[in-house]
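# step 3/5: fold
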Amino acid sequence: MKTTITKIFHVEENIDRVWEYLADPTKIVTCVPGASLTEKIDDHNFKGKVSLKFGPVKAAYDGKITIEELDVANRKMVLKGAGVDPKGKGSADMVMNGMLTEKDGGTEVNYSMEVSLVGMLAQFGSRLVNDVSDQLLNQFVNNFKNKLKAEATAPAPAAAATDTAASTTGAEAATAVAEEIKEGAAAVAEKVAETVTKTAPATAKESVAQTEDNSLNALSLMWAVIKGFFSRIFGGGK
């Protein structure tokens, strides 16, 4: 039994992005109901499985898909598929022609498939096969549009990584500042103690004056430490 199935649908995406997905079986297979790829032979040949249900009958095929033509300039493609029921109940062959055109700010996709069925499924006739195929194609279109939307709105990993790196850098800088000030304060305290010990005053008046002088020296030293640290960070040398 032979039948021809056609489908035209519109996608609110630019033609380059739509072509990128439709021309790559590894990207589009998850949108096809009941289909999966089992092996990539090369860039133009793939092996896979398809499970279908026609009324009360279920059918499964082990098959091969071949990309016969990919015309990037004119956005045209020709695919061939051949499947065999592993239980020996029949086979299916398909030739699909697809064409993409820019329309209404998006992309119009036009498919035409010639399908040949032998064995169990052929007994249902072309009308039932066409009806079921149309339902499957509608599911495919919805899946495809949802896939494009989901990936378009997904957060960029690179941006997230950049934000994380920036936060880490800021935390490290803050820690470095705290450590530098801590070390400076310890040095100041040590310097003040050393000065007081070496210049112990003979009278209370001299002691007060010396302490005030040491306090001023301590503040100057502290400022010098902080100023020097930030000068090194921002490239200053003054």
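# step 4/5: annotate
DSSP finds five helices and seven strands in the chain.
# step 5/5: archive (pending)
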